[in-house]
C-alpha cells in the first residue's frame, strides 16, 4: 500500500511529536528511545523501506503506525 507524504507526516507527529529538525524535505524525528532517523517526505509516495526502518529504530510497530493513519 502506498502512503502519501502528508499522511505519513501527520501519523509520525502523532506518535513522536514534532521533528527535531527539517532539512529540505527530510524530516528528522527523535523516538522515545532517543534515537533519531530522517524520513524523506518528497511529493508523492513515501519509500516503504525507509519508513519501515525508521519505525524499527523508534521501536514502533507497523500496526501502531497504521492505526494512527486510520484514525
Helical segment count: 3
**Major sheet: arrangement of strands:** 1-2-3
What sort of overall outline do the alpha carbons produce when their principal axes are compared? Answer: globular
The radius of gyration over CA amounts to 11 Å
The stretches of 5 or more residues where confidence is low (pLDDT under 50) are none
Largest sheet: 3 strands, antiparallel
Cα-to-Cα separation, first versus last residue: 17 Å
Tell me how many strands there are: 3
Average pLDDT reading: 94
Q: How would you characterize this protein structure?
A:
The chain is 44% helix and 18% strand. It has helices at 5-16, 48-57, 62-70; strands at 21-23, 26-30, 36-40. A three-stranded antiparallel beta sheet has the order 1-2-3, with helices on one face. A hairpin with a 2-residue loop joins β1 (21-23) and β2. α1 packs across α3. The mean pLDDT is 94.
Question: Can I get a quick summary?
Answer:
The relative contact order is 0.22. The chain has helices at 5-16, 48-57, 62-70; strands at residues 21-23, 26-30, 36-40.
Which descriptors would you attach to this protein?
alpha+beta, 3-stranded antiparallel sheet, 71 residues
List the helices and strands and how they pair.
Blueprint: H1 5-16, E1 21-23, E2 26-30, E3 36-40, H2 48-57, H3 62-70
Antiparallel strand pairs: 1-2, 2-3
Amino acid at each position: 500500500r502506498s502512503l502519501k507524504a502528508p499522511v505519513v507526516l501527520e501519523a509520525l507527529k502523532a506518535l513522536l511529536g514534532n521533528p527535531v529538525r527539517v532539512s529540505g524535505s527530510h524530516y528528522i524525528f527523535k523516538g522515545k528511545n532517543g534515537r533519531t532517523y530522517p524520513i524523506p517526505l518528497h511529493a508523492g509516495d513515501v519509500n516503504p523501506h525507509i519508513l519501515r526502518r525508521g519505525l524499527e529504530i523508534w521501536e514502533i510497530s507497523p500496526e501502531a503506525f497504521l492505526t494512527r493513519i486510520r484514525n
